[in-house]
Design a protein that fits this description.
Elements: H1 22-28, H2 40-52, E1 56-57, E2 60-61, H3 63-74, H4 76-88, H5 92-100, H6 109-116, H7 125-141, E3 148-153, E4 156-161, H8 169-183, E5 187-189, H9 190-193, H10 202-206, H11 210-218, E6 223-226, E7 229-232, H12 237-247, H13 260-275, H14 285-293, E8 300-306, E9 324-330, E10 347-352, H15 358-374, H16 377-396, E11 399-403, E12 406-410, H17 416-428, H18 437-440, H19 452-458, H20 463-469, H21 473-478, H22 504-517, H23 523-526, H24 541-554, E13 559-560, E14 563-564, H25 567-579
Parallel strand pairs: 8-9, 9-10
Antiparallel strand pairs: 1-2, 3-4, 5-7, 6-7, 10-11, 11-12, 13-14
Helix pairs in contact: 3-4, 3-12, 3-16, 4-8, 6-7, 8-12, 13-15, 15-16, 19-24, 22-24, 24-25
């Protein structure tokens, strides 16, 4: 049994690092913990993961942070694999998992705890339960899920380790160099690498077989395999990572030969990309949209156009009134015209600065043509690397935006979701919940769900009862629905709105009451307006809270079959109203 540092193993609560949080972290760097919309417990957990992965040390970003960021936007799966290697060498729970969990069966949380129990010493099960939950949570919510197979059994997640033999040779090399730096030797015997005492390497971390490693080593110029011993040169693990990042930007100068039928196909492909530039991204489109959505509080509906054909309409998007419509206007190569800053109402127009050199775009079209027409893996790989490099350039580039007659600039496209949360969303939903800083500051309030307890809270008899029910946790945050931006209550002791208050909730109440006063009030139909701009409520905790409070305001006024509605009927009505927004 190897000696381990297990102090503070319970430092992640039950939260793993998530893909959706990465753009936020990359945007704010050291200040991410001050400028985020995570809950307090999540902030602490993320800080621990970033420290254990070697991305932030003593509240300063490390060179590895920049390298992971560069790689993440070009090849996110590989970036997570590199993070996994780094976590193995810094996180006790990742270390325990890789060293003790085999590849034979699906395990739930209890099964994983039993597998690592021999190395836990005197640590109690209650102490290790949280970090195991956090690890499973990370598999569920990041691309690290690709290094395991997962199933559901009821509400439990089952995890089975799998053998990854398709790793890029740079990832294999990085894991070997980190191992060499850990053990202080650049000669690693295969017998040692596959033995029980080896503290790292591609088998222990990824289950990579010996046969696959032998193939990958042939692709690595800094590594040789001789007589059962792996020899590493003086290259550092950081330099291996730099080489990997640079490999996406190796310029391809020679254009492949295209026959007459290929040329016709290429012309059609070029026309298609002008009208539907998202076709250029292929399988990377989902990655790109994930980067853009980041930790957005609202759902982003993303459409595409080119500067040659920049016309977009709100009808092009298939979303709900509470969604934000984003049109990404691409100048795919330098020969295309510059963007024109205009667009329809309530559609956020985004114009990235990045564009490919005209000759690179032509070469990309050549390789895409041959990849699509002949299913040639060589051309698929060439096109894929060029597209990955361009996605990386796009995400790192500045951009212009236009929305409802206003325009501005952003520093990095991967910071778009943060700009939307902090500023742009309020230009669409100027009477929406994002105008309340505390509500905007905790994204857990924005997750759709049922929330029966929220109804009970907002039907409290008075402010004192309301305060008692919302004294801590997430309920403390949702209580700010009834507070102004400065924290002052907007209701009196009886939970009636104060008269001279400018507040989004008061606006929603006033408009609803005005509709009610006209007579023939069908709440389900009449309150659909709340899900549209400028309000934008949805079926999250905020929506349940606001509708509950509005209905409380109408309590004693809504009549059914000659009698006033009772609280339980209001509860059912609240649910019907929110379901009507879908």
């Amino acid at each position: 049994m190897r000696a381990r540092k297990l102090n503070g193993i319970d430092r992640y609560s039950t939260f793993g690092l998530r893909d959706e949080w990465m753009p936020l972290i990359f945007t704010h760097e050291e200040r991410w913990h001050e400028r985020n919309n995570l809950g307090p417990v999540q902030v602490k957990a993320v800080g621990s993961w970033l420290a254990d992965a070697g991305l932030i040390v003593k509240e300063k970003v490390t060179p590895l942070f920049g390298r992971i960021r560069d790689l993440y936007f070009m090849e996110p799966v590989a970036a997570w694999q590199i993070l996994w290697v780094s976590m193995y060498h810094g996180s006790p729970i990742v270390n325990l998992f890789c060293d003790n969990v085999g590849f034979d069966e699906y395990l739930d949380k209890k099964g994983i705890m039993e597998a690592i129990r021999p190395d836990l010493g005197d640590i109690k099960d209650s102490t290790v339960e949280n970090p195991v939950s956090a690890l499973i949570n990370m598999f569920d919510n990041s691309r690290l899920g690709a290094i395991v197979s997962m199933r559901k059994r009821g509400r439990s997640s089952l995890v089975k380790r799998i053998h990854l033999d398709d790793l890029d040779h740079h990832v294999v090399a990085y894991s070997l160099y980190r191992l060499a730096e850990d053990i202080g030797s650049r000669e690693i015997g295969l017998e040692y690498l596959y033995g029980d005492e080896c503290p790292g390497g591609p088998l222990r971390l990824f289950g990579t077989t010996m046969e696959s490693i032998a193939v990958k080593l042939q692709e690595s110029p800094s590594i040789t395999l001789d007589d059962g011993v792996i020899h590493l040169d003086d290259t550092s693990s950081d330099e291996i990572l730099d080489s990997y990042i640079s490999s996406f930007r190796v310029k391809i100068d020679e254009r492949p030969h295209l026959g007459s039928e290929d040329l016709e196909f290429r012309d059609r492909l070029g026309e298609l990309i002008i009208n539907e530039p998202d076709k250029l991204f292929g399988e990377r489109r989902d990655d790109l949209e994930g980067f853009l959505r980041g930790s957005s509080l609202r759902e982003l509906r993303i459409g595409y156009a080119s500067t040659l054909n920049p016309e977009v309409s709100a009808d092009d998007f298939h979303g709900r009134g509470s969604d934000i419509l984003v049109a990404l206007i691409l100048r795919t190569h330098e020969g295309m015209p510059a963007p024109t800053l205009q667009g329809p109402d309530n559609v956020l127009m985004v114009f990235p600065d990045a564009s490919m050199a005209a000759e690179d775009y032509e070469i990309l079209l050549d390789h895409m043509t041959l990849a699509l027409s002949s299913d040639d893996p060589e051309h698929s790989d060439a096109a894929g690397r060029m597209v990955s490099a361009w996605v990386g350039d796009l995400m790192a580039s500045g951009f212009q935006w236009y929305l409802n007659g206003e325009s501005g600039r952003g520093d990095r496209l991967y910071g778009l979701s943060e700009l939307i949360n902090s500023e742009l969303s309020r230009r669409i939903f100027h009477s929406g919940p994002e105008n309340l800083p505390v509500i905007r500051g905790n994204r857990n309030l924005w997750k759709t769900g049922n929330y029966p307890k929220v109804f009970e809270i907002f039907f409290s008899e008075n402010l004192e009862e309301f305060k008692k029910k919302t004294g801590s946790g997430l309920l403390w945050f949702i209580a700010h629905i009834l507070r102004g931006p400065g924290g002052d209550w907007i209701v009196d002791e009886n939970l009636n709105l104060l008269p001279d208050v400018y507040h989004p909730v008061k606006t929603m109440v006033d408009v609803t009451v005005e509709k009610f006063s006209r007579g023939d009030f069908d709440p389900v139909d009449e309150m659909k307006f709340l899900s549209m701009p400028p309000y934008g409520l949805k079926g999250d905790m905020i929506g349940h809270a606001v509708v509950s409070f509005i209905l409380r305001t109408l309590r004693g006024h809504i009549v059914k079959n000659g009698r006033l509605l009772e609280d339980e009927e209001f509860r059912i009505l609240k649910q019907r109203i929110i379901e009507g927004w879908k």
